[in-house]
Amino acid sequence: MQIISGHHTEIWSIDTDPEERYLATRSANPELRFYTIKHDLVDERSMLKLNGPEAVGSENSSVQKKWEVLMLFGEIQRQSKDRVATMRFNKSGNLLACQVAGKIVKILRVLDETEFKRKAKRRIHRKEKKFVKEAADVNGDVNPSTGEESSIPTLTSSLASLALSLNNNLLEIHSIERSSSTKTLTIELQGHRYDVRSVTLSSDNTLLMSTSHNAVKFWNPSTGSCLRTIDSGYGLCALILPRNKYAPVGTKGGTIEIIDIRSGTCIDVVKAHGGSVRSIATIPDGDGFVTGSEGHEVKFWEYQYTQQPDQCNCNCCISHVDDRRLIMSNLQHSKPLMVSHVRTMKMNDDVQVVAVSPDAKYITAVLLDCTVKVFFMDSFKIFLSLYGHKLPVLCMDISADGALLVIEPADKN
Prior knowledge:
Strand content: 35-45%
Strand order of the largest sheet: 1-2-3-4
Shape: elongated
Largest sheet: 4 strands, antiparallel
Distance between the termini: 46 Å
Structural class: alpha+beta
């Protein structure tokens, strides 16, 4: 229907005002182009009804222009050379927001015809006074496109509200005022700021845990609401223990963080591996868990519950039961759950995923060399070696009856 040229580089954003009067385009070049939109196309039959010599002279040119929907209205030369990533008009069409690649959003004001003439007349009057005052020849050639840029950003108070979606998963709402903007609202508590590295469900499916770059979040799976956010290290894997009281988190720094879900605090940090803790799996008997790391090893851990001060029944504690300060101080510094290292199984390569069969007879380890090793749990002797994948395995699980081993590698098989 119509092909429009003029931009020397690729066009990054395009938008129209709500009344569809103007079309704004922005490329990697400094200029911002505007086009007028023509809605009433000229009918060819109406062209034949023209009388007089005008019909002969203007028939060819009118037929050529009858399909021209967009006509160049003007352009604005911007001072910034950064490309505009997105342009959007507001609902009333009097503001145009330009998101520059980076951390800048520029707000331009679209003037109506009356206000434009008034500002143009005022600008000409100021120029005439300047010429008279200087009494000399001054270069008065002003590019009308660059002259409009100074009048466009003129703002009045509380013109509009601007919603921004940031790169760190934040939502911000700004109030556009006369010559500045004010951040009025921020949504930052629900999702993670960075990539989610692992998710795990509790045994009764009432709690969902997710780990990310610097935080651990607990969710309600039924409603999707975030229940608690806890600061942590770079969590790569996690596990919710039965009764939903504690959760060990394997981090990129090779540590295991013990999270107290009820209090929302990290009660202990254990230096577990020399490399990143890539996987963690519970032992079916409930006495511990297994971790696999990039340090070519699989480690077994046991739970150790320390006795609470208020649960002690010895004569010493009973005789000092009136000393409330001492009891509360010991209660605050106590560690209800601790983990201790029991055994270590050395591997030939980095361990990506570990899993334990439901009967605790076999332990499965996925290595970086694209192989899956199945060992006997008690003796660490190899039982099976599965191979054939071209890329490393990303995740693995064993069925509840122990009959199936499901593997998902990066080669889409």
